[in-house]
Design brief:
Helix content: 55-70%
Strand order of the largest sheet: 1-2
Shape: elongated
Order of helices and strands: HHEEHHHHHHHHHHHHHHHHHHHH
Low-confidence stretches: 1-31
Distance between the termini: 70 Å
């Protein structure tokens, strides 16, 4: 942070403005508040470097709100107001003020510092319309240090990719320094674009490049592994897909981990490792994944039971699917507002990551707004609490409107997907019934009875009876004991 520059600029205008305030000639701003003198900025600066950010924010706001745009050090005061709010955990309030600072061309030396703070805020839930679109995409910042230039070019390139301007995006991505973490993210983004254009070989090249990049972060490596694993799965290269899925590192006991376990189960099914697939599917019944929207697990479990000629358990999975989703399907059939269904809302968030980010930002707004009135009496004296409160209320209202529109589209997509699964389960139910009929009318039809499991007295493995206990550190390693009951031709 450019403390020396700030102090120099702060002192530069003291003589002229100090003289006017001593003579009692300070301009009046508003009905009752007079313009804050330069001493307020100076004391706010001292409070900031003493890490008294609440007092620093109040003094900087007092200076900014009671002076016009031409007053000395106003841009710096706004910057320190923004950073003080960030330090206090008011990320959106900070973002609003940083937006003004970064767009202010009267103090170009402030732009790098402001963009560094914006980059920090954008690591968490934030106002994407404000920072991603209106700030980074719609502005030309001129010369920036290489790391900051990479940050800006990456987001501008993403906007070009979404608009179908891949050549422009590639030009921006090529200008990102190779030592920047955004270089790996840019390669992954290009891979996704190539995959959407059905240019699979080019996409794989970008994904591998992102995965091998020396500055790739863990989230980027995970995204690249998942993308490569899905490509290999579609190519029926199940062993390669299995290795990549096993290397993915996601937070434990989250929806993301549940989705990875489900994809691993499909890969195990493709490898004919049915016991492994059933173990992974069984793990998804753990309480940790209770909120995971995963109709596929019923379909895959029924397919495995049918493949191994366990027809009654297979039909039972069809009934389990209908029991689990019948209320939601009834809601869809009644043509009720899809947004009123908790299950569809949960599914929509899983299917649409942008919706999840918008919800997270709405939660941030609510949490930060609740704290505005409890920070400092100085905030009430200067009006900072009212200003921030109004800012957050407006942002919350805009976000609620966005959520209403986004949920309408996303819940419709989730409903259509669920109906497609219902059709698949109905078709599978018919095929299972047909298979039962063919077995019963065959000459070799016979009843298979459960046989006791032969557990050795001495073994390198410990074997325990399962009594509905789920151990979080073992969820991805369950081995489900199931035998093949088919009669040769049925296999």
């Amino acid at each position: 942070m450019n403390a020396l520059i700030v102090l120099t600029l702060s002192l530069a205008g003291q003589a002229q403005q100090g003289a006017s305030t001593e003579a009692g000639e300070a301009p009046t701003v508003g009905p009752s508040r007079r313009a804050a003198p330069p001493e307020i900025f100076r004391s706010g600066l001292e409070a900031f470097y003493d890490e008294n950010y609440a007092d620093a924010a109040a003094r900087m706001y007092d200076y900014v709100s009671t002076n016009n745009d031409t007053v000395e050090n106003r841009a710096w005061a706004k910057y320190f107001l923004a950073v003080s709010l960030e330090k206090l955990g008011f990320s959106h309030g900070a973002a609003e003020h940083l937006f003004d600072v970064a767009q202010d061309r009267t103090r170009p030396e402030l732009i790098p510092d402001a963009l560094e703070a914006v980059e920090r805020i954008m690591e968490g839930p934030h106002d994407e319309a404000l920072l991603d679109q209106r700030l980074l995409i719609d502005n030309d910042f001129g010369y920036l240090p290489p790391d900051l230039a990479g940050f800006v070019r990456y987001h501008q390139g993403l906007a070009d990719l979404r608009a179908g301007r891949q050549r422009w995006a590639t030009r921006l991505f090529d200008a990102i320094p190779n030592r920047s973490t955004y270089a790996a993210q840019a390669r992954y983004a290009l891979g996704v674009t190539e995959l959407k254009r059905e240019r699979e070989s080019e996409a794989v090249g970008y994904f591998r490049s992102a995965l091998a990049h020396p500055t790739a972060t863990r989230p980027v490596r995970n995204l690249a592994r998942l993308a490569l694993a899905r490509v290999l799965y579609e190519r029926e290269a199940y062993e390669g897909a299995h290795q990549l899925y096993s290397a993915v590192e996601v937070p434990a006991l989250t929806a993301a981990e549940g989705e990875v376990l489900l994809e691993r189960a499909w890969t195990a099914y493709g490898r004919r490792r049915y016991r492994e697939a059933m173990g992974l599917l069984h793990a998804l019944d753990a309480p940790s994944y209770r909120t995971l929207h995963a109709p596929e697990k019923f379909l895959l479990r029924a397919l495995i039971f049918k493949r191994l000629c366990h027809y009654i358990p297979a039909k039972r999975e069809v009934r389990r699917f209908r029991f689990a989703f019948e209320p939601t399907l009834d809601h869809i059939r009644r043509r009720s507002d899809l947004r009123e269904s908790v299950a569809l809302r949960r599914a929509a968030v899983q299917l649409d990551p942008s919706l999840g980010r918008l919800l997270a930002f709405r939660e941030v707004l609510a949490r930060e707004l609740d704290r505005v009135d409890d920070v400092s009496d100085r905030w009430r004296e200067t009006g900072l609490d009212d200003d921030l409160g109004g800012m957050y209320v407006l942002a919350a209202a805009r976000t609620d409107l966005q959520l209403a529109g986004s949920f309408a589209a996303a819940t419709r997509a989730a409903a259509e997907e669920l109906i497609a699964f219902e059709e698949q389960m109905s078709l599978l139910d018919y095929e299972i019934g047909l298979a039962i009929y063919e077995r019963l009318r065959g000459e070799r039809a016979r009843r298979e009875e459960d046989r006791p499991v032969d557990i050795p007295l001495v073994s390198a493995e410990a074997i325990y009876p399962f009594v509905d206990e789920y151990w979080n550190d073992e969820l991805d390693r369950y081995d489900f004991l199931i035998e093949n009951r088919c009669f040769g031709a049925e296999e």
